[in-house]
Amino acid sequence: MVEGSMRQQWVWPAVLVAVVLTAAASLLARELYADDRAAPPPAAVLPSEGPLPAAEQPGHRDVRGTQDATQHPMYETVRQLLQTYFDAINGKNYARWQTTVTADRIKNMPETNWRASYRSTLDGSIVVYRIDTGPEDTARVMLRFISKQDVSDAPLELPVACIRWSVVFPMAIEDDVWKLAGGPTGASPQHEAC
Fold first, then answer.
1. pLDDT tens, 115-161?
2. Could you tell me the residue ranges of all domains in the chain?
């Protein structure tokens, strides 16, 4: 009887150890074989509302997004499109700019007008805040950015060297590619001096 009792005392700890080891092994396997597609979205930015020192304006040249924007399924498409758009303006490359906008926008902004409008412009601190998709392959992108320009090239209603813009860019699919479109949402941006 003593021998059977001792055997029973060892069975429960052995079963407990086996259960714990099995659970630990399954957790380890789950971590090792986790699906890479479940990786978190790119790190979002928390835009600063504070002014940039004059020497740092207009700020970073890469397009960034808030958490709301980076979680949208179109974010990477929008980010790449806007990066090309702003790189074209900053690089004074009209041909590159044409690849980012609809035919109507190109028609309304011939190269001579474009070069005159952006001759001294340098854009930065570009942050996408929100992306909204609409009907019939359309979308709207809310963003903020800073432009530096000669005062003579600034808008007539705000003749300053540094402007903080809050805009909504309409987008549309043209030739199976997303492009920045014209229209009333992009025609009246909010802007203020830096």
1. 999 999 999 999 999 999 988 889 999 999 999 999 999 999 999 99
2. 2-37, 54-193
Beta strand 190-193 with 177-180: parallel, antiparallel or unpaired? unpaired
Which residues, other chains included, contact 11 with Cβ-Cβ below 8 Å and sequence gap of 6+?
none
Superfamily of domain 54-193, CATH level 4 = NTF2-like; domain 1 (3.10.450.100)
Q: Where are the beta strands (DSSP E) in the chain?
A: 64-65, 122-134, 138-148, 162-174, 177-180, 190-193
How do beta strands 122-134 and 138-148 pair?
antiparallel
Q: Is 145 helix (H, G, I), strand (E, B) or coil?
A: strand
DSSP symbols for 41-61: PPPPP----SPPPGGGTT---
Q: Which residues of the chain have pLDDT under 50?
A: 15-42
